[in-house]
């Protein structure tokens, strides 16, 4: 027994004498937020939480320590927390001291502190030395130090300021220290599992036991202290106590349940004091208690099966608090319940008597302080002044009291405190307060139709009740009598139903209609005669924009409405129009469900996901989501109210919120964005660059990577919002990314193969899309180049360069003279090169300039030779002039060929030819010279009539001619020259040998004779240019052949040309298409001496054709004019531009034009003529000194019919012009006859003949154009193409396509006979794009190829010349 005067006895007597406080409490309907802790994607059970300075949450769980950033959990192993050498004991506790440091303690005494680098560092390794069976069971971090409670009755304290260690021992080895806390004046309290509590003095080291009603060896106690130093005691058997150390008195917070069995709420297993000093007590099965130490007010939170926002379990296994004062409640089975700190400012009602969340459609705060809540399907719930749900009216139940419907859409209270209720499906009801009964009010239109959808109710200043329903607007007196009815779409009223009734400060009544807009009630003396004035909120015909779903007034002349697009609109009653709501973004005034004006400067709106405060004065918007205590589910339109005390109510799917706007904080939470994970080449950066991450990845400002670490990724997040971090992110790597990359769910920026250099990684975040209101984080990233590109490598390179430069400079003096000589030589080479280019250009110009005078010389000489038949001496001298002029022409052409070779433009155009025939033809040119010099000139190998080789006739003829000319030049009289042709079938080549008995070539000069401009001594003496042999070698090489020389001085020289047989060694561009490159008739035509007279007979004066001559050389122009004027009507022009001008008033039958002319050349003239419909039919002959195939093809491509080189034979030119014009005339006559004779035997009348003539004329004008399409006939004939096609077929029996093809082939025949053109040139001339296709069509039409057809014609012509008498 206790002694009478003992302190314990006094304490008990004092305890019995004290009046025990009996505290009433009620279950709180607060919205808890529920989350779950995860480890490896599996739910785990957490027991405590602490938030560090960065905003990370650290949780102690059954699987270990977890770090949570709001998105992901990361688990830390024991080795990461306590070091690799620490024991594998389980973690006892994770707690935070008053300075914000986080400590982690294991059951075996390992202690670690979380550093700013987000890494744990082991501390106080020698504080405890525990035996195998000894463990720590409790821990507390206070202002004086860290306290550890064991399972053997010892408490150990480690000072945080120094190495001081304090021990308190109760000397009970089987008693466990269950709880430790600090009090005032150096006092430390601790309790045990046997119902004992001890007080230790850290200064005096005195230890005393506290005696009280909780002492019981089977009663486990836990402790905490409040801010006043009072001790709070939680027990398993007796509930909650508070102890005042100064008065040594107890307060007992016990459950007064009358049941005789065990009461769960007495079992306090967790106790916690938050930063505000509130005491939280968690029970085993009895829920959670919140006690205010100052007022002794108790609030209770329990689990409700019908309320998903309640605690998930009534068993509390842990309590904690985060930096923003959110309370975390850990319940069994791994559930975490979070009570946001701001939830105390946003009140919550479930809307039902059971506590189950109801859909709230209407809200009414009554005069007696009760709150009426109209629900969607659950009737009416009444909340009393204390916040308790005290009554519920539900139709078809024993609590109905006359209520006929449970869908309550509108509630109002009249001055008699009677309630008017608008329902869906059950019409209008009136609740009589005195009888506590509901009665129906008849709401019908004039035809007796019942109102089934009462959407809105309103009481005006005259105590009239306005009812908006599906049949119209009704007005009632307080007695329930209907005094007026206004149907829809009458009296100026439009729309389907009245959603909003508002009364402004001038007592004007405004009605907001669905699908109708805004209306002002204009009251007349007789209420039924009143009408409505419409106003448009938005000037549009789009009904939803003017459809009103909710509204409010600020009593200062402004009305605020929400339209069907959830847009907030402001209407001025003074200006009678909608005015803008300034200072807010488009997003801030959209997405509105309901609106309430707290005053003229503050609007509160409910949204789908929360409530917003619009501060109209500041132009700022503040948003409060479920994390701040608002409903997590959607708010509903029309479910909003404001009572006389200024309290606002917003209802939604899961109940309703109520709050005092003046108590809501306007400050926005400071959110912190951090980069919290870095991976390099798909590995954790901690493994690769730990030295750079000593301060933690969150603190890193610069990052240095080597050249193998060019792929990396950053993970980032807003880390101090853990409840629902729904943020938008954007990032970029400056100097690599030009634009920001925006993301919402992906919080990882990955970069691969980034070049070395300096970059800046930037990441920003925002609470809304494109609103970046969270501070940007940056990391400077430096990727080092490879070691061979580092600065020290460049230093080494510089050192080496300096050494090398030293030696270069040292020896540069020795080479100065040599360099000077080299420079002078290079300068000389540049001059030689310039001189060489001038020489090449000179060759080209001279070749062109020489050919024109030669033409003027040769043409008259030919005429003079013919006329000098009787004067042999004159004829011989004229022949000498002609021969030398021809030689001069060949030299000019040789110069042009050399220039092309030097410029890389020398090309060949090979075809298959008979080499025997071509050599024989060339040899004939030297027969007269051989006879004159009495040289024995033989052609050997011609007994074989034919050796077919692939070569360029013109180029090979030039080579053979040049070699023969040299042979005759250096062979004396009575010498011998032989040209022999042999074919070596085995070696697949043909050889041409030219042997002479001339003076020979010295051996030391043989290697140089093929060099350009090289001349031997004898050559210089005899004369020459030094060009011929060099050009001959180049031409043979182009044929993939060889040329060699053998010579013996004073005995003679042999030149051997070897040419491969076949054509496989030539490139595709070296072929003259698929036909022979030229089908030339080089023989000079045998002209009768009386050609002039014959031409006069051929062309009578009355049939003279018109010819246009275009030539820039005045003398040549006069010569040509003189040559043609006796046979044709001649018109002259000196350039292409003049020629085009002449053709405007002169109809030319044929045009002769030079190619190279000023202002407009001949090629451009051809283009212009062929583009015009009126001139495209005129044949054109081009005269030029350009002898290349490419230049000829270019002229023929653009419409020229013949291409004649200067110098030319004027007689040959006269005959060609005559033949072209004659052939053109004959073809037209022939086709005209064929058209009329080839047609089917139809009786063609005059219109059909005219139609045929028109078609023929159009084809004649366009056949040369390869791009001509038959569809173009439709335009010129003014008929559709299909009609032309059918009519032509019916008249001629031929299709247009076949006819045009035959027309072009027959046009080609006279060109083939009369002009020296290749098959390809003829094909282009008559409108074929493809020479192969032309040959194929020609063979199909004439049963012979063009070549065969031409050869037969030549043979026939030769036969006619030999037998002139034969017809």
Automatic annotation (TrEMBL):
Annotated TM spans: 791-813
Modified residues annotated as 4-aspartylphosphate in this record: 1154
Source organism (scientific name): Labilibaculum manganireducens
Location of the HTH araC/xylS-type domain: 1253-1352
Family matches, as SMART domains: HATPase_c (SM00387), HisKA (SM00388), HTH_ARAC (SM00342), REC (SM00448)
Catalyzed reactions per annotation: ATP + protein L-histidine = ADP + protein N-phospho-L-histidine
Superkingdom classification of source: Bacteria
Swiss-Prot/TrEMBL keywords: ATP-binding, DNA-binding, Kinase, Membrane, Nucleotide-binding, Phosphoprotein, Signal, Transcription, Transcription regulation, Transferase, Transmembrane, Transmembrane helix, Two-component regulatory system
PROSITE patterns: HIS_KIN, HTH_ARAC_FAMILY_1, HTH_ARAC_FAMILY_2, RESPONSE_REGULATORY
Entry protein name: histidine kinase
InterPro entries: CheY-like_superfamily, HATPase_C_sf, HATPase_dom, His_kinase_dom, HisK_dim/P_dom, HisK_dim/P_sf, Homeodomain-like_sf, HTH_AraC
């Amino acid at each position: 027994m206790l002694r009478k005067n003992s302190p314990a006895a006094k304490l008990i007597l004092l305890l019995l004498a004290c009046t025990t406080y009996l505290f009433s409490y009620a279950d709180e309907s607060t919205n808890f937020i529920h989350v779950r802790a995860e480890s490896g994607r599996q739910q785990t059970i957490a027991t405590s939480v602490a938030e560090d300075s960065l905003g990370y949450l650290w949780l102690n769980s059954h699987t270990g320590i977890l770090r949570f950033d709001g998105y992901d959990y990361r688990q830390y192993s024991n080795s990461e927390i306590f070091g690799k050498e620490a024991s594998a004991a389980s973690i006892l506790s994770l707690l935070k001291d008053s300075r914000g440091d986080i400590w982690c303690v294991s059951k075996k005494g390992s202690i670690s502190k979380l550093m700013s680098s987000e890494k744990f560092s082991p501390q106080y390794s020698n504080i405890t030395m525990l035996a195998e069976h000894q463990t720590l069971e409790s821990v507390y971090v206070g202002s004086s130090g860290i306290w550890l409670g064991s399972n053997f009755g010892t408490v150990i304290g480690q000072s945080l300021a120094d190495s001081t260690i304090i021990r308190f021992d109760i000397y009970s080895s089987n008693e466990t220290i269950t709880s430790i806390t600090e009090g005032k004046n150096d006092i430390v309290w601790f309790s045990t599992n046997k119902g004992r509590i001890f007080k230790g003095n850290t200064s005096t080291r005195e230890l005393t036991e506290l005696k009280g009603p909780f002492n019981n060896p089977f009663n486990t106690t836990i402790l905490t202290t409040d801010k006043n130093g009072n001790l709070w005691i939680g027990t398993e058997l007796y509930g909650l106590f508070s102890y005042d150390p100064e008065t040594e008195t107890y307060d007992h917070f016990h459950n007064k349940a009358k049941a005789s069995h065990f009461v769960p709420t007495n079992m306090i297993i967790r106790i916690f004091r938050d930063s505000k000093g509130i005491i939280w007590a968690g029970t085993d099965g009895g829920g959670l208690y919140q006690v205010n130490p100052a007022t002794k007010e108790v609030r209770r939170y329990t689990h409700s099966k019908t309320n998903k926002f309640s605690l998930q379990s009534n068993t509390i296994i842990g309590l904690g608090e985060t930096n923003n004062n959110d309370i975390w409640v850990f319940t069994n089975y791994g559930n975490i319940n979070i009570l946001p700190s701001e939830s105390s400012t946003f009140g919550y009602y479930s809307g039902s008597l059971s506590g189950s969340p109801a859909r709230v459609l209407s809200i009414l705060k009554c005069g007696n302080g009760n709150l009426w809540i109209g629900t969607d399907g659950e009737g009416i719930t009444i909340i009393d002044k204390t916040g308790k749900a005290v009554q519920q009216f539900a139709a078809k139940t024993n609590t109905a009291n006359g209520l006929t419907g449970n869908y309550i859409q509108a509630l109002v209270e009249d001055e008699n405190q009677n309630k008017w209720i608008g329902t869906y499906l059950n019409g209008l009801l009136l609740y009589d307060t005195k009888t506590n009964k509901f009665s129906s009010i008849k709401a019908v239109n004039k035809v007796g139709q019942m109102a089934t959808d009462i959407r809105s109710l309103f009481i005006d200043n005259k105590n009239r009740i306005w009812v908006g329903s599906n049949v119209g607007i009704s007005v009632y007196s307080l007695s329930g009598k209907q005094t007026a009815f206004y149907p829809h779409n009458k009296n100026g009223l439009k729309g389907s139903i009245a959603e909003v009734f508002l009364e402004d400060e001038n007592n004007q009544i405004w009605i907001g209609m669905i699908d109708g807009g805004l209306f002002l009630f204009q009251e007349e003396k007789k209420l039924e005669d009143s009408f409505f004035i419409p106003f448009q909120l938005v000037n549009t015909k789009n009904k939803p924009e003017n459809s009103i779903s909710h509204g409010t007034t600020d009593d200062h002349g402004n009305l605020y409405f929400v339209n069907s697009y959830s847009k907030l609109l402001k209407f001025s009653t003074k200006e009678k129009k909608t005015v803008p709501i300034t200072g807010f973004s488009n997003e801030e005034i959209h997405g509105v469900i309901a609106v309430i004006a707290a005053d003229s400067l503050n609007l509160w709106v409910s949204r789908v996901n929360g409530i917003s405060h619009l501060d109209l004065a500041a132009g700022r918007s503040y948003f409060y989501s479920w994390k701040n205590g608002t409903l997590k589910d959607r708010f509903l339109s029309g479910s909003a109210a404001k009572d006389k005390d200024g309290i606002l109510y917003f209802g939604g799917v899961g109940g309703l919120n109520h709050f005092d706007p003046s108590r809501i904080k306007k400050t926005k939470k400071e959110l912190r964005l951090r980069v919290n994970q870095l991976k390099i080449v798909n590995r954790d950066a901690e493994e690769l660059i730990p030295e750079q991450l000593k301060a933690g990845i969150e603190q890193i400002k610069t990052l240095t990577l080597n050249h193998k670490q060019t792929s990396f990724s950053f993970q980032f997040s807003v880390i101090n919002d853990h409840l629902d971090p729904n943020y938008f992110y954007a990032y970029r790597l400056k100097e690599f990314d030009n634009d920001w990359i925006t993301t919402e769910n992906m919080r990882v920026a990955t970069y691969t193969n980034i070049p070395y250099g300096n970059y800046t990684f930037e990441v920003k975040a925002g609470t809304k899309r494109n609103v970046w209101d969270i501070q940007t984080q940056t990391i400077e990233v430096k990727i080092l180049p490879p070691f061979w590109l580092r600065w020290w490598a460049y230093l080494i390179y510089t050192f080496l360069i300096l050494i090398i430069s030293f030696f270069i400079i040292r020896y540069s003096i020795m080479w100065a003279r040599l360099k000077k000589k080299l420079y002078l030589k290079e300068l000389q080479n540049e001059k030689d090169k310039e001189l060489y280019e001038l020489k090449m250009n000179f060759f080209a110009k001279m070749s062109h300039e020489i050919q024109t005078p030669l033409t003027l010389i040769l043409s008259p000489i030919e005429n003079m030779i013919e006329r000098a038949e009787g004067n042999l001496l004159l004829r011989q001298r004229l022949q000498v002039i002609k021969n030398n002029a021809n030689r001069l022409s060949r030299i000019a052409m040789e110069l042009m060929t050399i220039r092309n070779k030097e410029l890389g433009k020398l090309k060949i155009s090979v075809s298959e030819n008979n080499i025997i025939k071509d050599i024989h033809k060339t040899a004939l040119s030297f027969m007269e010279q051989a006879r004159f010099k009495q040289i024995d000139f033989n052609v050997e190998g011609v007994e074989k009539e034919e050796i077919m080789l692939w070569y360029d006739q013109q180029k090979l003829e030039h080579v053979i001619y040049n070699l023969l000319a040299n042979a005759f030049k250096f062979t004396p009289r009575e010498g011998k020259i032989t040209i022999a042709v042999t074919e070596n079938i085995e070696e697949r080549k043909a050889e041409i040998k030219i042997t002479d008995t001339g003076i020979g070539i010295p051996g030391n000069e043989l290697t140089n004779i093929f060099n350009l401009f090289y001349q031997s001594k004898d050559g210089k003496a005899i004369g020459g240019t030094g060009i011929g042999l060099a050009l001959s070698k180049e031409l043979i090489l182009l044929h993939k052949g060889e040329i060699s020389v053998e010579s013996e001085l004073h005995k003679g020289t042999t030149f051997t040309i070897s040419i491969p047989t076949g054509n496989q060694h030539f490139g595709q561009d070296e072929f003259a298409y698929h036909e022979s490159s030229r089908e030339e008739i080089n023989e000079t035509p045998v002209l009768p001496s009386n050609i002039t007279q014959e031409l006069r007979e051929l062309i009578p004066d009355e049939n003279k054709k018109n010819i246009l001559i275009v030539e820039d050389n005045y003398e040549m122009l006069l010569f040509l004019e003189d040559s043609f004027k006796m046979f044709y009507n001649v018109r002259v022009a000196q350039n292409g531009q003049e020629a085009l001008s002449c053709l405007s008033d002169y109809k030319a039958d044929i045009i002769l034009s030079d190619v190279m002319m000023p202002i407009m050349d001949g090629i451009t003239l051809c283009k212009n003529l062929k583009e015009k419909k009126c001139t495209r039919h005129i044949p054109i002959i081009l005269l030029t000194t350009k002898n290349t195939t490419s230049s000829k093809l270019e002229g023929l491509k653009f419409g020229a019919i013949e291409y004649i080189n200067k110098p030319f034979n004027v007689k040959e030119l006269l005959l060609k012009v005559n033949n072209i014009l004659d052939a053109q005339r004959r073809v037209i006559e022939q086709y005209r006859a064929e058209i009329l004779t080839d047609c089917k035997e139809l009786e063609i009348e005059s219109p059909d003949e005219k139609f045929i003539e028109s078609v023929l004329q159009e084809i004649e004008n366009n056949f040369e154009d390869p791009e001509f399409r038959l569809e173009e006939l439709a335009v010129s004939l003014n008929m559709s193409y299909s009609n032309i096609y059918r009519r032509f077929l019916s008249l001629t029996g031929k299709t247009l396509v076949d006819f045009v093809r035959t027309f072009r082939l027959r046009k080609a025949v006279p060109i083939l006979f009369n002009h020296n053109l290749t098959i390809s040139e003829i094909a282009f001339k008559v409108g074929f794009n493809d020479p192969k296709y032309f040959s194929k069509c020609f063979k199909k039409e004439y049963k012979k190829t063009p070549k065969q057809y031409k050869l037969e014609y030549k043979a026939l012509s030769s036969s006619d010349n030999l037998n002139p008498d034969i017809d």
